[in-house]
């Protein structure tokens, strides 16, 4: 297993009852990293599974992978729940200066991990896997209602960031940018969107890597009505976070204009009429 000093990249995988996907995910990640054309050396990468106390054999599965030489470890949370807080915990645990988040369900193809990690740099502090890139047929295997939900979620986020697909959940961030973020919403549905706004990532610092969603192999989708409501709540919080100062300024400006207008009306009245007020 790699020593602490050699780890420059951390791949964070939030998981709940995803034991059936852990082995193919980890082996495919490291197979991609060990290819001759990989821009990132496998020995500089760690994989961290953040598990919400699934009790489904995930711990034993990770231990078996460790014995086979894979640099993977698991963090089991017993008092916390939720996707976003799991990602934050993983980023806090990561040893690397470059951190990547991906789903455990194999819908984020592990073969893209080397490219995603290599896209991070001091000038590109955020990398986003986008389903809206050139040559990508967005969500081609999804039913119509899922496509509508995905498109609607993206449109609602457009005023918050220039990123083309903050909904994908396949993203990376430099450690120093992550540490600058304050008041992260650990209950939010889309932690990438939260980080883009609260870490103040400028448009020129966002690298995008086009990819197509893979097909879920094991487990169940986490998209529920409750999750969608949480996303709307998260959007409301982010809109206020980003635009509250502008809203206050516009309100003050409106009041000032009203006062000037009222004073102008008063000055146009004859003196006798002004005394009545």
Automatic annotation (TrEMBL):
Cofactor list: Mg(2+); Ca(2+); Mn(2+)
Compartment annotation: Endomembrane system; Endoplasmic reticulum
Record has Manganese as a keyword: yes
Segments forming domain Glycosyltransferase 2-like: 10-178
Domain of life: Eukaryota
Entry's transmembrane regions: 239-261
Keyword Manganese: yes
Sorted UniProt keywords: Endoplasmic reticulum, Glycosyltransferase, Magnesium, Manganese, Membrane, Metal-binding, Transferase, Transmembrane, Transmembrane helix
UniProt cross-references to InterPro entries, sorted A to Z: DPM1-like, Glyco_trans_2-like, Nucleotide-diphossugar_trans
E.C. code: 2.4.1.83
Annotated catalysed reactions: a di-trans,poly-cis-dolichyl phosphate + GDP-alpha-D-mannose = a di-trans,poly-cis-dolichyl beta-D-mannosyl phosphate + GDP
Role this protein plays: Transfers mannose from GDP-mannose to dolichol monophosphate to form dolichol phosphate mannose (Dol-P-Man) which is the mannosyl donor in pathways leading to N-glycosylation, glycosyl phosphatidylinositol membrane anchoring, and O-mannosylation of proteins.
Name of the protein in question: Dolichol-phosphate mannosyltransferase subunit 1
Organism: Meripilus lineatus
Lineage, highest ranks first: Eukaryota, Fungi, Dikarya, Basidiomycota, Agaricomycotina
């Amino acid at each position: 297993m790699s020593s602490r000093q050699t780890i420059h990249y951390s791949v964070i995988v939030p998981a709940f009852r995803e034991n059936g996907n852990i082995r193919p995910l980890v082996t495919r990640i490291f197979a991609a990293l060990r290819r001759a054309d990989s821009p990132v050396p496998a020995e500089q990468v760690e994989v961290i599974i953040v598990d919400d106390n699934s009790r489904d054999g995930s711990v034993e599965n990770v231990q078996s992978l460790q014995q086979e030489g894979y640099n993977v470890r698991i963090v089991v949370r017993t008092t916390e729940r939720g996707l976003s807080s799991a990602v934050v915990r993983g980023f806090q645990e990561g040893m690397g200066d470059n951190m990547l988040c991906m789903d455990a369900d194999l819908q984020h193809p592990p073969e893209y991990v080397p490219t995603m990690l290599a896209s991070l740099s001091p000038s590109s502090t955020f990398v986003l896997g986008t389903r809206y890139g050139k040559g990508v047929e967005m969500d081609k295997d999804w039913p119509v209602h899922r496509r509508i939900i995905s498109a609607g979620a993206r449109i609602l986020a457009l005023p918050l960031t220039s990123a083309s697909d903050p909904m994908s959940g396949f993203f990376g961030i430099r450690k120093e940018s992550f540490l600058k973020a304050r008041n992260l919403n650990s209950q939010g549905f889309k932690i990438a969107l939260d980080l883009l706004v609260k870490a103040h990532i400028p448009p020129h610092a966002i690298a995008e890597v086009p990819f197509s969603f893979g097909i879920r192999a094991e487990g169940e989708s986490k998209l529920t009505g409750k999750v969608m409501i949480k996303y709307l709540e998260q959007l409301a919080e982010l809109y206020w976070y980003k635009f509250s100062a502008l809203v206050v300024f516009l309100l003050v400006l409106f009041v000032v204009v009203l006062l000037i207008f009222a004073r102008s009306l008063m000055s146009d009245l004859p003196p006798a009429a002004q005394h009545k007020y």
